[in-house]
Amino acid sequence: EIKENWKKMRELDWLILRKLYEKRSISKAAEDLYVTQSALTKRVKTIEQEWGVEVVKRSSQGVTFTEDGRYLVKKAGIMLDFLGEIREHFSERHGVKELVRVGVPNSFARLHMPKLLKGYVDAYNRLQFKTFPNSSDMLIRQITDGTIDIAIVCGDYPFLGEKICLFEEELYIMAPMGTALEDVEHLPIIESYLNPMVKLLLNQWWKDHFGESLHAAHFVPYSDIAIEMVENGLGICFLFGSDWAFDRSRFQLIPIYNKEQEPVSRRVWMMLSDSCYRNQDIMDFISFTEEYYHVNKIERK
Prior knowledge:
By secondary structure, the protein is α/β, with parallel strands linked by helices. The chain has 11 helices and 12 strands.
């Protein structure tokens, strides 16, 4: 049983123990490791369940390590050094990092990719990344024909391989501050590139809400260009996700709801080619991404 527990402990778990002991704060440790507080807490509870011990005691002042917890922290240093020596040994032999080809749509590249890769590099830094920017429908083709190893896809496209739902993002209208939803029907629409599935979703919402088809006044390739045009008073635009950078004192995001008064949204998937399983470092990146977005289930369709 002890041997099986050792196998279950991932490198990130040992990093969590060491960082938590150093910071004595779940929020500060989570921030340094680029994971959410809930994800970090969940991993600590999993460690406790796997070993059948209490690792930390929680209070309003932070966390205090138990005797068993301090023992695991001591072993965490040994384990991380041991894993580092193995990694250094084989990196010296091979000389180069494994290349992983990741296809990303523009919105994910703008809002998520830099922080995700920064977190991975700080925790592991074992891979060389080459990104392929493209629309979700084209990325499906690229992962199917072997051009890329991993595809980040926005929307529920059919895919025969393995995929992981990272998160769900809601649809908004970016408009000048004070604009009501009823007013947007009469404002110029700045349309950035929409893959066919998203365009169908948006057109259906517009028709349900206003009784006619959506007519754009301007077409641009990317959402960030559409944002700049809105900021220059040329109309409104549609955005998935709420983390875009713009002047929040002058402009607002209006949430969009369907007939059932549910937010209109799309799921964002990480799709995996068979080539991912050729290398443990690539699988570690996939596991890190799951932890980063606090998901842990591969969905097979």
